[in-house]
Amino acid sequence: MKRFTKEENSWVLYDWANSAYSIIITTAVFPLFYKAAAENSGVSSAHSTAYLGYTIAISTFILAMLGPILGAIADYKGCKKQFFIFFFTLGVSCTALLAFIPSEHWLLLLLCYTVSTIGFAGANVFYDAFLVDVTPEERMNLVSARGFGLGYIGSAIPFILSIAVILCAQTGMIPLSVSAASQIAFLITAVWWGLFSIPLLKNVHQRYYIEREPHLIANSFKRLGKTLKHIKQYRALFLFLLAYFFYIDGVGTIITMSTSYGSDLGISSANLLIILFVTQVVAAPFAILYGRLAEIFTGKTMLYAGIVVYMIVCIYAYFLETTLDFWILAMLVATSQGGIQALSRSYFAKLVPKKHANEFFGFYNIFGKFASIMGPLLVAITAQLTGDSSSAVFSLIVLFVIGIIILAFVPENA
């Protein structure tokens, strides 16, 4: 197999960099920090979970609205990197700011988290679109999967540092409160994310673009309207996006709200952090394995496999009772969460016209982000109505069923 190029490795390393945000801010430390802060202020467990779901929905709605428009503008020469740098800087700065907001200001924490999420997700729109610039079509599955695989490994290092600081604070080994230790973890995340993004900033460049012209914004809206008007020309692409809309909704919701769900089940913060760390370690080789198997069985077949695993996760979640049950659930998720995301990205990249990659990845973003609104809202509303987080997670199975049915109608060409 051909060795990975400097551009491919630089692009892959950004997954190594920003995955620290995914595990520490999105999944592990921040949700626990926030729930403790909210509940110490008199907010019930179910309501704090609901508010987190509403916050995730708001932030993803904002970016979903901006995605296609910004993507259309970024297709012009030199714009892709500029947009990436803006959102990347916004995300890193607000992540660092979380370290300095007192825990009693839980609403301010949610606001800062919302803005950091916009920065993180916004940068990912343009990062994903860079895949067409760094590697040929026949290597996209491998490169995309390698990114997710190294992302899990890379995120494990700052996660270990964060867990060490938090556990030492819990046991009194260092003279810090658990709250202060959690805020140090936020700072570690920002530094890690910023430092390992440097290779992408230096070595990855926009190869496919539209030459600049007067009135960039006005013409971008015209191109966007033209794309929507002639949507039938891209039937396979938008059919895939529709399937993606449903199944990635369930994937994202399970990832972002897993610690909140575990906390509601009575699992201790220490156990949750350890489980999440092991999940990262197990997920790394499985993400790469998905990429290898996609070369043998096709990307679509492996997407089917990942969706089926998540359907099993939803069913199993309904019957969770013990910490061991949560361990089993986490390992099931670990086998497929990286693979399904990596192959979705590469499958879509093969379908898009390369010179309009940002515009179409803007649609990829809007479908993914609108899906991320529906899932957390479903969990939030169900949790409030039933007072039972297990029922909320089980309800997500319908999204995977719809997704796999629509995916069956997408052409087998990626």
From TrEMBL:
InterPro entries: Atg22-like, ATG22/LtaA_families, MFS_dom, MFS_trans_sf. The chain crosses the membrane at residues 12-34, 54-76, 83-101, 107-127, 148-174, 180-201, 236-258, 270-290, 302-320, 326-348, 360-385, 391-410. It is found in: Cell membrane. PROSITE patterns: MFS. It is a multi-pass membrane protein. Residues 236-414 form the Major facilitator superfamily (MFS) profile domain. Keywords: Membrane, Transmembrane, Transmembrane helix, Transport. PANTHER family: AUTOPHAGY-RELATED PROTEIN 22 (PTHR23519:SF1). This is Efflux transporter. It comes from Bacillus atrophaeus (strain 1942).
